[in-house]
């Protein structure tokens, strides 16, 4: 018996082989005829979809309904692109079986076009890849034959002179088929010859003349150019009528066989496609004879085994499998021989290089070339095995996570009305999950009566189709197994199908009883704090009023003391000795310092309470006002204040004026003896805030005092050397805080000081 690895065998045997392949590999073929507007499914498709063969007539509408709703638009768009010639038709999509089960298939098809490129038919294949993720397609055998088409065609009856080929008669169908009228055919000499396609003309005329001269009836095909320019195929069946042994008249029938020709070409393409399809299926196919010799196989078998055709011819099936799998392979072959029923088994192919390929092998008995053979279809389940392993690991991780977390995880399957509780319901709420079988009703009735109505209405709202929100977060009281209510926070995700209906809800509950108790105590504490704040505000108001009144009332006695000291000095000055005059001067200086302290304290108390609105401030104008305040001192010390044109900002005028007034005053005050002071004022735009700087070249500040200088009454020098109250920088700090800015200092003793402060833009 000759063996080959190519599928070049009669079409009838191919049909039998393909039918068995359909059964073994869960495949089915389909055909869409655009001319007759009909759709055909093979028996394999009906079986794949859970129907009995030809249970209903397939139409475009019900054919589309079996496609999963989310895949329909993509499937239609893909078909349109294939028909337009933009791409090959090959698509993976989901189908809905009769029982509602969703399967994944891959569909691939060929578009059969006429000579003008117009689609006339699509022939394709479905393969169920739900379990094994392995796809390819197979085309069904066309059941339309050329003979059936010919019987339905109308023909042109004609009669011509055998010697001149001039038409004597032509039937009315000529206009329907060729577009030319009878008169046009009859009136123009050589009309028929002139309208034969140039590439076929000489051959057609020569053949007709040859057979006519031999007095032989004949039939031949040729292309003909219609009146509208389209090219059709005609089959001319000629009857030679002789007289005295010489041809006198030719009569015949012209039949438009364009469709037949196109179909014939398509059938040839289809047979070639079927052979290629089998060769390129994602499954490996092999055919064994009664002695377990390989008769046929496809390229996938060679690819997986890593063996070439010569090696496969010399091998037996058991040679391709591991030692551990060989007994079940041999038993399967015996079962096939005895029971002749199909077998399915999992095993591992051992490749030429020693690799292990997990396979699912389906095999059955078939008749091929009048002998019983074994047809096998193997599918590579490497990915499936890996997915199963990953799923098992995922489930283990889920179990460990459920046990390790402090959450009570739950899962509600809406379609089956099944509620599953994880281990957390035992650890958190004390439910014995071996005894308690929860359902939705059980769950609802364990919610506190005061919370139940609210939660139930919320659940109903979320269960509505196409509800805009899918993430659930609610707090309520939940009855534990010991009869005590726990405060819980429940987080869940509502999972919806393509039509917006909830099909599953997955969530987790946390026991927040301790947090609730803490929140309650915190609320009580906040109430106390608010009360204390109100009391403190009243106290601060009273202190401010006291400070204002005290500072105001203290100034009158100080003015009196100063006045009487001046009177004492002027009236009795000549009677007092030098020591008495020195004491009077000490008293007068103390009164002045006390009066300045009172004024500074009054100013400090006013910082942060401007009786003005937030407005646009002209910083240049404010600095001009400050310089006017220190005009006498600036002149005496020959001071220089350098500043660019500064921007306008939003803020409160009084605090900004206080800041610059005190910083510039300090820069003038703490200058080096005998050296004219120089102050530099700058600003930087720092996106969300203004950063101002006031730099002097004075005596500087030691780093250890950087934080102390902003504290009230903190002075670094004696009053005789540098007069002051120690309140100026405290006023600056309070004003900057009121403006919600920041202030800091950089300085080096003997080199000068830079004060930085910020004012937010918003």
Explain what this protein looks like in three dimensions.
With 762 residues, the protein is α+β, with helices and mostly antiparallel strands. It is 40% helix and 27% strand. The strands form six sheets. The chain has a five-stranded antiparallel sheet with strand order 2-1-5-4-3. Strands 7-6-10-9-8 form a five-stranded antiparallel sheet, sandwiched between helices. A hairpin with a 4-residue loop joins strand 1 (27-33) and strand 2. It starts with 10 loop residues before the first helix and ends with a strand.
Strand order within the widest sheet? 2-1-5-4-3
Report Rg: 52 Å
Helix content: 40-55%
Query: Quick one: overall form?
Result: elongated
- Percent strand: 25-35%
Largest sheet: number of strands, sense, barrel closure: 5 strands, antiparallel
Specify the number of helices: 23
Unreliable stretches covering 5 or more consecutive residues: 1-9, 134-153, 716-720
Average residue-wise pLDDT: 79
Number of strands: 27
| Structural category | alpha+beta
Distance between the termini: 95 Å
């Amino acid at each position: 018996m000759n063996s080959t690895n190519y599928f070049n065998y009669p079409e009838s045997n191919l049909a039998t082989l393909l039918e068995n392949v359909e059964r073994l590999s869960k495949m089915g073929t389909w055909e869409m005829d655009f001319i007759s507007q009909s759709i055909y499914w093979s028996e394999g498709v009906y079986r794949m979809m859970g129907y009995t063969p030809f249970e209903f007539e397939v139409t475009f509408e019900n054919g589309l309904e079996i496609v999963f709703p989310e895949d329909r638009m993509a499937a239609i768009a893909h078909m349109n692109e294939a028909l337009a010639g933009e791409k090959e038709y090959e698509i993976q999509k989901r189908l809905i079986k009769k029982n509602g089960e969703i399967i994944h298939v891959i569909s691939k098809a060929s578009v059969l076009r006429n000579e003008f490129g117009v689609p006339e038919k699509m022939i394709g294949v479905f393969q169920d890849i739900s379990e094994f993720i392995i796809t390819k397609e197979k085309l069904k055998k066309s059941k339309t034959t050329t003979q059936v088409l010919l019987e339905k065609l109308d023909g042109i009856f004609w009669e011509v002179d055998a010697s001149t080929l001039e038409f004597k008669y032509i039937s009315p169908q000529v206009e329907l088929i060729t577009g030319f009228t009878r008169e046009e055919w009859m009136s123009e000499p050589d009309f028929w010859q002139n309208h034969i396609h140039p590439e076929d003309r000489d051959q057609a005329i020569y053949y007709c003349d040859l057979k006519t001269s031999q007095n032989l009836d004949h039939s031949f095909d040729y292309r003909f150019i219609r009146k509208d320019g389209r090219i059709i195929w005609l089959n001319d069946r000629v009857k030679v009528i002789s007289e005295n042994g010489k041809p006198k008249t030719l009569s015949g029938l012209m039949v438009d066989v364009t469709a037949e020709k196109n179909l014939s070409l398509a059938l040839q393409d289809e047979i070639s496609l079927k052979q290629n399809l089998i060769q390129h299926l994602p499954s490996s196919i092999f055919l064994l004879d009664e002695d377990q010799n390989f008769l046929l196989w496809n390229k996938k078998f060679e690819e997986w085994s890593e063996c070439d055709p010569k090696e496969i011819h010399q091998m037996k099936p058991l040679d391709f499998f591991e030692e551990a799998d060989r007994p079940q392979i041999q038993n399967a072959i015996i079962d096939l021989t005895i029971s002749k029923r199909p077998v399915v088994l999992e095993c591992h192919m051992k490749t030429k290089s020693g690799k292990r390929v997990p396979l699912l092998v389906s095999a059955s008995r078939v008749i091929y070339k009048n002998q019983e053979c074994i047809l096998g279809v193997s599918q590579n389940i490497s990915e499936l095995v890996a997915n199963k392993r990953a799923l098992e690991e995922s489930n283990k991780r889920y179990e460990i996570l459920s046990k390790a977390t402090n959450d009570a995880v739950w899962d509600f399957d809406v379609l089956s009305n099944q509620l599953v509780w994880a281990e957390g319901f035992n650890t958190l709420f004390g439910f014995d999950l071996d005894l308690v079988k929860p359902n939705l009703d059980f769950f609802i009735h364990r919610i506190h009566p005061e919370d139940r109505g609210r939660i139930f209405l919320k659940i109903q709202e979320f269960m509505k189709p196409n509800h805009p929100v899918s993430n659930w977060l609610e707090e309520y009281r939940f009855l534990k197994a010991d009869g005590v209510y726990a405060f819980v926070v429940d987080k869940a995700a509502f999972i919806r199908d393509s039509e917006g209906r909830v099909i599953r809800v997955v969530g987790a509950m946390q026991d927040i009883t301790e947090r609730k108790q803490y929140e309650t105590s915190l609320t009580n504490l906040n109430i106390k704090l608010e009360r204390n704040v109100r009391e403190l505000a009243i106290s601060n108001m009273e202190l401010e009023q006291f400070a204002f009144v005290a500072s105001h009332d203290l100034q009158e006695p100080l003015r009196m003391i100063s006045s009487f000291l001046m009177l004492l000095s002027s009236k009795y000055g000549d009677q007092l000795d030098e020591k008495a005059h020195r004491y009077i001067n000490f008293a007068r200086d103390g009164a002045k310092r006390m009066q300045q302290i009172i004024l500074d304290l009054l100013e400090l108390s006013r910082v942060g309470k401007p009786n003005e609105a937030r407005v646009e401030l002209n910083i240049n104008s404010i600095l001009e006002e400050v310089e006017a305040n220190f005009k006498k001192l600036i002149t005496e010390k020959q001071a220089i204040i350098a500043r660019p044109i500064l921007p306008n900002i939003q803020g409160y005028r009084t605090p900004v004026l206080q800041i610059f007034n005190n910083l510039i005053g300090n820069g003038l005050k703490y200058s080096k003896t005998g050296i004219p002071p120089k102050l530099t004022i700058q600003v930087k735009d720092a996106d969300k805030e203004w950063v101002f700087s006031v730099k002097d070249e004075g005596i500087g500040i030691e780093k250890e005092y950087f934080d102390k200088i902003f504290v009230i009454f903190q002075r670094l020098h004696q009053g005789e050397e540098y007069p002051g109250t120690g309140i100026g920088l405290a006023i600056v700090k309070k004003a900057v805080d009121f403006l919600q800015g920041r202030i800091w200092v950089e300085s080096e003793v003997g080199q000068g000081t830079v004060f930085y402060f910020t004012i937010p833009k918003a």
